[in-house]
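Box 3.1 A note on notation
Throughout this textbook, protein chains are presented in two layers. The first layer is the amino acid sequence; the second is a C-alpha cell string describing backbone geometry. Keep the layers aligned when reading.
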Amino acid sequence: MPKAGIIYNDIKPIACRIAEEWRDKLTSEGWEVCMATGEGGILGYSEPDRPVCHTPIDYLTPPGFNSEMKFALVLGGDGTVLSAFRQVAPCGIPLLTVNTGHLGFLTESYLNQLQPAIEGVLNGNFTIEERAMLTVQLFREETLLWEALCLNEVVIHREPLTSMCHFEIEIGKHAPVDIAADGIIVSTPTGSTAYSLSAGGPVVTPDVPVLQLVPICPHSLASRALVFSDQEPITIFPANPNRLVMVADGNAGCYILPDDRVRIQRSPYTARFIRLRDIEFFRILREKLGWGLPHVAKPTSVELP
C-alpha cells in the first residue's frame, strides 16, 4: 500500500478542512495517509534559567512519517512550509507545498489548483528540487544546549534589537573577523529572499552552493554582506557583556551568553520540493516580489483642460 502524509496549519479552518478531504480521498484510492500539524516543527524558546530547551533535530519527525512515504502534502503559508521541512527533512520526504496563507513564496501551488496538482503527483508528472538547509548548534563549553534545522536563516541579535552588538566570526579556516552591528544573519540561498533581502543582502539563486553573512545595520561602511562556500562551517562568538538572542527561521530560538559559541554549517539533510513545472526562479521573483518588471514610461507632456 503506498503511503503519503499531510501536514497542515491547524489554526486555519480552510487548511483543516482540505486536509481531512484529501485524507479521505487518498484513503479511498488505496493510500495509507498519516497526518500532522505544522506545530510539531515549532522549536520553542529557551529561558535564561532553562537554557536547555530543544528537541534533537532527528526527533521532530511526526509519528508514521518515514522514508517509505512517496510524498507529503503541506497546507499553509511559508511558516508551515518551514516547519514541515524541519519535521521531515531527515526522512527525505518530498513535499508538495500548497499556499493557504498570504505571500506563499515557498509554496508550489494554490488551493484552486490543488486537484490537478495532486493528480500530477500521483501520475508521476513532477520533478524534485533539493534546497540546502542549515544545522545550527549552541554550545556552552562542550555541552550542546540547543540545536535546530533551518531552511531560511539564523539571526543573532541583542534585546532590544536596536542595540549595537559585537561579534567575532570564524568562517572555515579563514582568519576571524569582527563585526559591530544590530545583529547578523546567516542565510541559505532560499533565505536570500527573506530577512536577508530586507537587510540589504543579495538574492542568490537556489542552485548556487553558497551561504551568506549579512550584518543588520552595521556600524561600519566596511561591514557588508559576504557570500562564501557552503562547505565552510561558521563559528560565532558573542563579544558582548550581555546576553544575545538567536532565532531560527523566524519562529524559535534561544539565549546566548558571553562565553557561549554558535556553530552553523550546511546540513546533511536537504529540503525536497515537488515541482509541477520547470523550475524558473526569476519567474517566482517576478510574481512574488515584482523583480524585473518593466518600467512604465511617463508621458512627456500633459494636456491641460
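The chain has a mean pLDDT of 90. The two ends are 74 Å apart (CA to CA).
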